[in-house]
Specification:
- The protein is mostly beta strands and 41 residues long.
- Helix content is 0%, strand content 44%.
- The protein has a two-stranded antiparallel ribbon.
- Strand 1 and strand 2 form a beta hairpin.
Length: 41
């Protein structure tokens, strides 16, 4: 995934699901978070 989205900013987060327990997810951003930290809103 990181190769495919190499030009985008991303962060890794931990999510605790009710079933299945903790998982790591990658969130990719298609905008500059420094300029628009609120993202889509």
């Amino acid at each position: 995934m990181r190769e495919v989205f190499a030009g985008l900013d991303f962060e890794r987060i931990e999510i605790q699901y009710t079933l299945g327990g903790p998982r790591r997810e990658l969130i990719f951003y298609s905008w500059n978070r420094a300029d628009e930290p609120a993202g889509l809103f």
